[in-house]
Amino acid sequence: MKISFMVNQYARISGGNRLLFEYANRLKKAGQEVRWFVLAKPIKWYRWDKKIIASVKRIVTISPKAIDWIDNTVPIEILPANYSKYIPEADILVATAWQTAEFAAKLSAEKGVPFYFILHYESLWTRYKSRAIKTYDLPMKKLVISNWLRGVLEREHDQTADVLVTPVDKNMFFCEEKKWNSTRRVCMLHHDYDWKGYEDGIKAVRKVIAQGYNLQLVVFGEKLEDPQALFESAGFDFEYHYRPARERLRKIYSSCDIFLCPSWYEGLGMTAMEAMACRCSLVTTDTGGCLDYAIDGQTALVSLPQDVNGLSKNLTRLLDDEELLMVLSENGYRKIDEFDWDESCDRLMFLFKKRLA
């Protein structure tokens, strides 16, 4: 089977990129012919000179090894322009973001039966909200990564979708032997998107510290190599890791006791799941997507989005209650272990074949 993945960007370390590369590589390993296309940056309508130049350029192919944070064997093909002629004939065409869905909808049937793999409800934050919203009504088979996303499509667009909750790579994220710290280490992702809630997380940690609790904040991210601005904004220094991946990221998760997720909404939330696989206890907001694995009081402590007081109270609950901390760690780990990559890939192939039939 010939399968074309179409993405808007590829280099950023993110849960979305990780899951797409994982599916592409597993499908290739299973004997499918997989190609990975990156859309070109749009050319302004009045720049006919650039459009003409782009129309005679060739696709730029980047080595799979350019992606060093996951085991990738699929070459990355960057389009010089978003023209139909650059997309080969295929059986299946997978759009993965609103821009790619918009482009895929204009392609002929020979380019592949179109699927729209929806990783988030992007209209919540994109500058092109109206365009993004329209893509959810396109006549494509919809795939989503959480039951929350399926519900949004049903309520807002009267669309049906199949749910494929993204598993964690158990060979990459695990904890051989959990060691609890006397001074609890609280891990959190830094991101510059407001809806990722980083500032809410910092405020919650500050409130907990102001109450006399002793904790060590551990932050990782890929937006800032020098964390000095983050230290100044927070009002205190903390442990910071720039662009960790693979073994480094696993060791960070495993060294921590609690993972703090303050996002306002998430399609699923892979960093929280990876941390749980490494036996961190989860304190999270109700991001929507997290509800496939974050069950309040059982596998996590869940508060309302943008509720700094709720986050801080749940942090102090775990700092005060060692038994609850360990129960959530064990239950969370077991919950994440329920999701399996082999089963997900088999399910995806079944959906592809069903649609073709």
> How far apart, in Å, are the first and last alpha carbons?
13 Å
How many domains, as an integer?
2
Largest sheet, spatial ordering of strands = 3-4-2-1-5-6-7-8
Sheet with the most strands, sense and barrel status: 8 strands, mixed
Principal-axes shape call: globular
Structural class: alpha/beta
Low-confidence stretches: none
CATH architecture of the largest domain: 3-Layer(aba) Sandwich
| Average of the residue pLDDT scores | 95
- At the fourth level of CATH, the homologous superfamily of the largest domain is Glycogen Phosphorylase B
The CATH topology label of the largest domain is: Rossmann fold
Helix and strand element order: EHEHEEEHEHEHEEHEHEHEHEEHHH
The tally of beta strands, per DSSP, is 14
